[in-house]
């Protein structure tokens, strides 16, 4: 009898260990492509990675520092990252195989997240009062491989300003703000969510000027690039910006490889909305993340798993009268 008990105990032990090992092997470590630590992609992506790791079975997500949108899309297309943020203009180019992308990329969208605001920054007291004034100046457009650079060049080219009109610098957020602080840079483009730490910290260190875009300039930018619309930066967000300033804006998207399973895509986007309050604690831009906006991505390809989530959510709301 005792021998049978021992045999049963060992058999049970082996079964438990085997089950534990099976669970371990079923957990997949995934990479989320974000951006520069001075922007919003990285802290918001880190928060999302933590939420998914804790609340999506079988997922261990790690946030990765990258150069930004273009790099993120290439990594996702090559399956070097499973998910990431990108500005809408870069996603349009990637799906179509234009701009920085020599051929269409195998990408799907989980949702539209929050708007990036284009900050053309200089230091108060400089003679850069308008976009035209950057001519013959030292200007950072953003690092190679970034959505920041794509956006800056789209805007400048729409306004008839070329690479030959100013001294081009390709700097990340930190390098751009440091250059403005120490006078080695005259102006810089930073496309980031409103209240981005790079701009906030620069405004605390120096009195900044947020260069405005005229109505005529915005109309021409939107005519050539419909993804860009006018946005008014209200007073009080940045120290020294005491009047409304008009500037372009465009949306950031959450993107995956088209090969991601429908089930995983569904669980990721569902958990994002279930845990949205945690993201708001990381950055106020998360307040912009709502299902109605997230699902409205125009002609871009929505992942079937995400589409199922939105369809079920909106159907449930209609049934309940909400």
Write the SSE topology.
Elements: H1 2-26, E1 28-33, H2 41-55, E2 59-64, H3 69-77, E3 83-87, H4 88-96, E4 107-123, E5 138-140, H5 147-158, E6 167-169, H6 173-182, E7 187-193, H7 197-205, E8 208-210, H8 215-224, E9 229-233, E10 245-257, H9 262-274, H10 276-282, H11 291-294, H12 304-320
Parallel strand pairs: 1-2, 1-3, 5-6, 5-7
Antiparallel strand pairs: 3-10, 4-7, 4-8, 4-10, 9-10
**Which regions have little confidence, pLDDT < 50, spanning 5+ residues?**
1-25
User: Termini, distance in Å?
Assistant: 64 Å
Structural class by secondary-structure content: alpha/beta
Mean pLDDT: 92
Your description of this structure?
The protein is of the alpha/beta class and about 325 residues long. The protein folds into two domains: about 1-115 and about 250-320, Periplasmic binding protein-like II (D-Maltodextrin-Binding Protein, domain 2); about 115-250, Periplasmic binding protein-like II (D-Maltodextrin-Binding Protein, domain 2). It is built from twelve helices and ten strands. Strands 1, 2, 3, 4, 5, 6, 7, 8, 9 and 10 form a ten-stranded mixed sheet that branches. α6 packs parallel to α7 (about 195-205) and α9 (about 260-275) crosses α12 (about 305-320). The longest helix has 25 residues, at about 1-25. Residues about 1-25 have low confidence and may be disordered.
């Amino acid at each position: 009898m005792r021998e049978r008990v021992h045999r049963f105990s060992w058999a049970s032990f082996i079964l438990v260990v085997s089950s534990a090992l099976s669970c371990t092997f079923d957990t997949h470590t995934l990479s989320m492509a974000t951006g520069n630590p001075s922007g919003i992609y990285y802290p918001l992506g880190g928060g999302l990675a933590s939420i998914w790791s804790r609340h999506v079975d079988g997922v261990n997500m790690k946030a990765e520092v990258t150069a930004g949108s273009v790099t993120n899309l290439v990594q996702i297309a090559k399956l070097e990252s499973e998910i990431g943020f990108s500005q809408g203009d870069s996603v349009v180019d990637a799906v179509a195989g234009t701009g920085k992308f020599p051929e269409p990329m195998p990408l799907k969208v989980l949702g539209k997240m929050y708007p990036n605001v284009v900050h053309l920054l200089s230091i108060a007291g400089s003679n850069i009062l308008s976009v035209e004034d950057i001519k013959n100046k030292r200007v950072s457009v953003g690092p190679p491989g970034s959505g920041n650079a794509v956006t800056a060049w789209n805007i400048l080219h729409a306004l008839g300003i070329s690479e030959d009109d100013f001294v081009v610098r390709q700097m990340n957020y930190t390098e751009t703000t440091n250059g403005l602080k120490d006078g080695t840079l005259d102006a810089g483009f930073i496309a980031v969510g409103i209240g981005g730490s790079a701009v906030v910290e620069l405004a605390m260190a120096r009195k900044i000027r947020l260069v405005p875009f005229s109505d005529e300039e915005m109309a021409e930018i939107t005519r050539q690039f419909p993804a860009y619309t006018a946005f008014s930066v209200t007073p009080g967000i940045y120290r020294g910006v005491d009047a409304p300033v008009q500037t372009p804006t465009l949306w950031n998207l959450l993107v995956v490889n088209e090969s991601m399973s429908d089930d995983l895509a569904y669980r990721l986007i569902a958990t994002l909305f279930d845990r949205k309050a945690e993201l708001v604690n990381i950055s106020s831009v998360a307040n912009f993340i709502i299902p109605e906006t997230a699902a409205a991505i125009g002609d871009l390809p929505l992942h079937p798993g995400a589409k199922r989530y939105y369809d079920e959510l909106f159907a449930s709301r209609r049934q309940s009268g909400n």
